Amino acid sequence: MRQMIIRRLLQTIPLLFFVSIVCFAMIKLAPGDPVLSFVTPNMHADDIERIRHNLGLDRPAYIQYLLWLKQLLQGDLGYSLVNHQPVLGQIIDRLPATAGLMGSAILIAVLLAIPLGLIAGANRNRWIDKIINLIAYIGISVPLFWLAILLIYIFAIKLSLLPSMGMRTIGEESIGDVLRHGILPCSVLAFGFLAGYVRYIRSSTIGQLKEDYVQIQYAFGSNKWTILFRHVIKHVLLPIITLLGMSMGDLVAGAIVTETVFSWPGIGSLGMTAVRGMDYPIIMGITLFSSLLLILGNLAADILYAIVDPRMKVKG
Amino acid sequence: MSTKFKGLVIAMLFTVLLAACSGNSGGSTAATSTGSSTADSGAPKDGGSLIIGVAADPVILNPLYAGDRVSLTIDQALYAPLFQVNNGKKTFYLAESLEPSADQLTYTLKLKKNLTWHDGQKLTADDVVFTINSILDEKQNSFLRAGFIINNKPVQVSKVDDLTVAFKLPQVSPAFEASLVQVSPIPKHIFEGETDLEKSSKNNNPVGSGPFKFKEYKTGEYVTLDRFDQYFGGKPHLDRVTYRIAKDANAANLALQNGEINVQYLDPRDVATIQATGNFDIQSYSEGRLAYLLFNEKSDTGVLAKKEVRQAIGYALNRQELIQTAYTSDQYADPAHSFETPDGLYQTNDVPTYDNDVEKAKQILAQQGISNLKLRMIVQSGNKVQEAVSLYVQQKLKEIGVDVELQNMDSTAFGQKFVDGKATDYELALSGYIMGYDPDAYRILFATGSSSNYTHYSNPQVDKLFEQGSGEGDTTKRAEIYKQLQTIIAEDAPIYPIAYTKTIVAISKNYGGLDQAVLKPVVIFEDLSKIYQKQ
């Protein structure tokens, strides 16, 4: 077990290295020029060239990458090309907003998805299954930005119950205020995650119900709900671990569209601005962070699997 | 999925959609309660706050580096300028006067007395000299540098006394005032000794001299400014101004209706919705911008090198229809004939124009012996105005037998191709520019081989006139030169001017003092201290 963890952790390094090369290459291959975001028509060509030179953008791409890598190995993610603030600081500034929003959305989605998925699976093709399925299909097919605008319209404008945007009322610092602002974006994201999770749990429930242990419980005369919520649930929870492991990347990458619509000050909206301005140090920083969490999340999921399910023997 | 089930899904989706639509139409009446307007009466009141919606985080709160709309807007309240110019009229802010010497080679700037920075320190000639020298310093990367280099020689700035600064110009340059108007001084006592002003952490806690001082900035959320009581223009009416970052235009409009934003730019398409609430003053004003169709004379086919062909294309188009297509109404755009915008010095729209005469267009092409003409037009995909206009151009040119191939590309690719002087694989593109009020600024667009001459237009007479105009001290002669330039360039048609566009701003009826604050391109309000909250 320990060997496995060490090996996996060591594998992370070349993996991240690979991710960073691919990401950097994609940014450099894409059309566009970061300097263009500073250029005004009244600027002289030699002033533009000087800025390009001062930012190191006149060097070949591989040199730029190597310089970036050298910096990274010294623990420095560099500076934004646009506002010249340290990348790490900007990510850390926005991390709580994104982690809080995504964390609660994922948690709510999982807590709702488990009972819904179990009920749907146990009542396959009956009306309740169809309703739950319908909700899941809507969640998958409705664009989240549209749902967001709809919810803002209903709850903020028509009913005046909730604020339409931002993370707090200006000047207010209370947690309650942040929670109030979080309700709408969190609901939208939770709905999006929920749809996927429910489909997952439903199909795994259907599979479990065919297992021998379920038949035995029936033979003992156990109630259907007891079987479902006491026995089947334990087996169904296993794939949830994997799902959660895979969501770890989202936890820091944030949700670009939803954060933008709600003006949520998270990493998603930081990323969007960076992509528009070709601000590669920021894009690289966010990509590295989320890849790292995704990889670690998967590792954690595998370890948990081994602990929870004795049938899974992890080979060292 | 069974067909019955599919039917159910579709039925459900329809109900959701219907609910959304019906909600929209009824929305205007329900929302009015929050900000009902009171009668505009009596003297301006003190107190209250204002929330201005902005589309992005400010890049940098330092006027030497602010190039983006949001930073410029916030800096306008934080940092007072020396003076401003509106429709040729000069308003002095920090400066009391600006006088050129008889030979026009020295400008003497006098500051007002008792000016203070937000931290209480005195604002003096030292700060102005420090600011100009920082702009001139190559290591500091300021945008404004080019304006202080005249014919490759820098302007020399020196302190005469605590309230007087002298600028020595290497040669006569009437455009110098247009460079100085962009300068808002930064405090020497804060920034002195910083090696890189742009990266300086001092920018996170800006100290200015404008009507409002910095309170706090929450990344991705808002920037708050508080009233500065010692503002030289008199104590501002509002206690607080907040710039709220709302990146999604639809969501921002909802927040506007909800009272979470009080001032916000509007797209022409959204005007009707916001107007229907009855809670907003909708103001449109010229932003000194020209929207135009560019003719690339150096494309690999070379077909647009002949001015007759460019004129024929002009004849094939109809400016009024173009404006309707692009801006939904001629209320938000004035037809343009001259390359210079109406806010500029010596501007005249009374110049030759080639417009709306299909027969003439066909005739010219026939005279030139041109048939089966093919043109390529680059279009920013996702840009609704460009997409609509490009389809219109394609359709109109078809009428004169010209085939237009539309090449859609994303905005960065478009931008790069557009500014790349060597791109030869397109003939037509839509663009716009804001060049300021001094016509010398247009030289880089139309003089042979200039940095921003994207049309590759070249006319020795034009080059000579621009050269003369930049160094001509006599106003009457200078006016004559630029009138002549506008005529020649209009005749040569390197671009097809479409419209002088307007900015549309919605302002909650709860606020007054708009006339005194002066609506201004890019920054919304020239002097925010004059805005007050009613009630």
What structural class do the secondary elements of chain B suggest?
A: alpha+beta
Mean pLDDT of chain A: 85
Structural class of chain A: mainly alpha
Question: Could you state the CATH homologous superfamily of the largest domain in chain A?
Answer: MetI-like
Instruction: Give the CATH topology of the largest domain in chain A.
Output: MetI-like fold
Features:
heterodimer; A: 316 residues; mainly alpha; 2 domains; 74% helix; B: 535 residues; alpha+beta; seven-stranded mixed β-sheet; four-stranded mixed β-sheet; 16 helices; disordered N terminus; Peptide/nickel transport system substrate-binding protein (chain B); Peptide/Ni-bd (chain B); signal (chain B)
How would you characterize the overall build of this protein?
The complex is a heterodimer of chains A (316) and B (535). In chain A, 74% of the residues lie in helices and 0% in strands. With 316 residues, chain A is mainly alpha-helical. Chain A folds into two domains: 58 residues, no CATH class; 183 residues, MetI-like (MetI-like fold). In chain A, helix 1 packs antiparallel against helix 12. The relative contact order of chain A is 0.15. In chain B, a hairpin with a 2-residue loop joins strand 8 and strand 9. In chain B, helix 8 runs antiparallel to helix 10 and helix 14 packs antiparallel against helix 15. Chain B is globular, with a radius of gyration of 26 Å. The termini of chain B are far apart. The N terminus of chain B is likely disordered.
